[in-house]
Automatic annotation (TrEMBL):
This is Peptidyl-prolyl cis-trans isomerase. SUPFAM superfamilies: FKBP-like (SSF54534). It comes from Algibacter miyuki. PROSITE patterns: FKBP_PPIASE, PROKAR_LIPOPROTEIN. It catalyses: [protein]-peptidylproline (omega=180) = [protein]-peptidylproline (omega=0). Belongs to the FKBP-type PPIase family. Keywords: Isomerase, Rotamase. Residues 68-150, 193-276 form the PPIase FKBP-type domain. Its EC number is 5.2.1.8. InterPro entries: PPIase_dom_sf, PPIase_FKBP_dom.
Length: 276
């Protein structure tokens, strides 16, 4: 897919302002065009103070995005005459901050799983610049489905699939962590502030390893590591072993870290050697 519409705001600002003589305010005529479109199609839309019109068909039940969040959106984009300029049914994955203003604002009215329509005047889209099949000054309309916000729901599906594929049974905590106790151990059970020594191997759901310790393990304070470890190690007693299946929000979230891609599910085979 082209994904030509979902460009970074910084680029939009630069291209819009690089030649001030090209900048035209289409606000009045765009609003009249939108009002006519709404009337002709018997649409009930809300209008924000920015001039964006939006229709919420399904609010959704998941997380609502804010600046800095990653979103995945399926959409169809078209003009008021019905001509379609882009259609992405699989979903486009990016950060909310990277989108045109109409999307940046509009998606924040929905929760994960929500569907609806954004009717975007030119000053919240591409202004007085033409973009591929979109003429300068165009009102652009998007039917959207906010598939995911960040990785929580998506990661949970990935973990469940991994467990099914490998015939594993795991416990799930309230935080979204999955854990498998193979050997509970017989020694002390650590708290989240204890120092522990753990031997481990870390890998992704495709079994590719990204880190491991030697058999003697490494020592650390449990309140100084990723949240999935801080919580997960406390389910074991000294001498215990098992697996932690950690979604991104309990690891490195939306960010690339030391070779680990953003949004990754991390799996660890662990041996709790000692509670120090």
């Amino acid at each position: 897919m082209k994904n030509t519409l979902l460009i970074a705001i910084t680029l939009l600002f630069i291209t819009s302002c690089s030649k001030t003589e090209d900048v035209i305010d289409y606000s009045v005529e765009n609003d009249a065009e939108i009002q006519a479109y709404i009337t002709d199609n018997n649409i009930d839309a809300e209008k924000s103070t920015s001039g964006l019109y939006y229709i919420i068909d399904e609010q959704g039940t998941g997380e609502k995005p804010v600046l800095g969040d990653r979103v995945k959106v399926a959409y169809k984009g078209y003009l008021t005459d019905g001509s379609v300029f882009e259609n992405n049914t699989e979903g486009y994955d990016t950060y909310l901050d990277n989108l045109i203003y109409g999307w940046l604002e509009g998606l924040q009215y929905f929760n994960e799983g929500g569907t609806g329509t954004l009717i975007i005047p030119a000053h919240l889209g591409y202004g007085s610049r033409s973009t591929d099949d979109i003429p300068a000054g165009s009102v652009i309309i998007f039917d959207i489905e906010l598939i995911y916000v960040n990785y929580k729901t998506e990661n949970d599906q990935q973990i469940v699939q991994y467990l099914e594929d490998n015939d594993l049974t795991a416990e799930k905590s309230d935080s979204g962590l999955y854990y498998i106790i193979e050997e509970e151990g017989t020694g002390d059970q650590p708290t989240q502030t204890d120092n522990v020594t753990v031997a481990y191997e870390g890998y992704y759901t495709d079994e590719e390893s990204f880190d491991s310790s030697d058999a003697s393990g490494v020592s650390f304070d449990l309140n100084q590591v990723i949240a999935g470890w801080t919580e997960g190690i406390t389910y074991f007693k000294e001498g215990g072993s098992g697996k932690l299946l950690i979604p991104a929000h309990l690891a490195y979230g939306n960010y690339y870290y030391n070779g680990i891609p953003a949004g990754s599910v991390l799996i660890f085979d662990i041996d709790l050697i000692s509670v120090n």
